[in-house]
Design goal:
Blueprint lengths: L6 E5 L6 H15 L8 E5 L5 H8 L4 E6 L15 H6 L4 E4 L2 H4 L6 H13 L3 E6 L3 H5 L3 H12 L9 E5 L13 H15 L7 E5 L4 H8 L6 E4 L6 H9 L6
Parallel strand pairs: 1-2, 1-8, 2-3, 3-4, 4-5, 5-6, 6-7, 7-8
The structure holds phosphoenolpyruvate.
């Protein structure tokens, strides 16, 4: 079992309205409720519109709140953006940054991601920094090169390792039902630790991309895989809990 505490993160993306989001959050919290503390960290990252209400619903439960993306500045004339401190105000402890849907959907560079990581860590958030190769990178045999470059360039010089999680999310595996083998994930996770240098053994490196209750077990039994970032399957309370419960024993 992993030396590091496991981390299970739900990325709800742009899904959920007030009623459905609250039902989902309450159902997950109820499944997670136990007499004993959870032996892993369980985080829900709803859309920004639901953050406050979901945070209220999670009060007194072992489930923690996170946000999706933030601006680099603390405040300013940035229509439509939210600062890291605003997510802290909403009760968030984690934030997802550098997701491929931001990198490729919004043209975010690794340099911008690094600035966001710095801003979010300064505000006190734990940053979940996503990296991953595209299908074309994979076919070109460039996975290692891309991952190394993204890890190096997406972290600020003064990165706080205690507030850092890296999520390896192959772009071709997100929402496609396709996945690398656990062995291939392990190779990339080891590379990420190597790039991180002396901090590599303490930072949690999690995997994301078409994780389901059916395949979570084969991923989470590996020491190198410190947790999972779950998109579609996190929109179903029982399914998401089944993924999380995979690391109930022995974590
Ligand atoms: C994601 O977008 O972070 C993700 C992992 O999505 P899915 O689980 O749907 O592949």
């Amino acid at each position: 079992m992993s030396k590091r505490r496991r981390l299970i993160v739900a990325n709800w993306k742009m899904y959920g309205r007030l009623t459905s989001g609250l039902v989902l959050a309450r159902d997950i919290a109820e499944l997670a409720q136990s007499d004993r503390p959870l032996p892993f960290d369980l985080v829900l990252c709803p859309p920004a519109t639901l953050t406050w209400a979901v945070g209220e619903a999670l009060q007194g439960t072992p489930v923690v709140l996170g946000g999706q993306d933030c601006h680099t500045a603390t405040h300013g004339a940035y229509t439509g953006d939210l600062s890291a401190a605003m997510f802290v105000d909403l009760g968030c402890r984690y934030i997802i940054l550098g997701h491929s849907e931001r990198r490729y959907g919004h043209g975010e560079s690794s340099e911008l991601v690094a600035q966001k990581v710095e801003a979010a860590q300064l505000a006190g958030l734990t940053t979940i920094v996503c990296v991953g190769e595209t299908a074309a990178d994979l076919q070109a045999g460039a996975t290692a090169e891309i991952i190394e470059k993204q890890v190096r360039e997406s972290l600020p010089k003064n990165v706080k390792t205690s507030n850092l999680v890296i999520a390896y999310e192959p772009v071709w595996a997100i929402g496609t039902g396709q996945q690398p083998s656990p062995e291939d994930v392990i190779v990339v996770h080891k590379l990420i630790r190597k790039v991180l240098g002396e901090i590599g053994e303490t930072v949690r490196v999690i995997y994301g991309g078409s994780v389901t209750p059916a395949n979570a077990g084969t991923l989470l039994r590996e020491d190198e895989i410190d947790g999972v970032l779950v998109g579609s399957a996190s929109l179903n309370a029982e399914g998401f809990w089944a993924i999380a419960a995979t690391c109930q024993q022995g974590s």
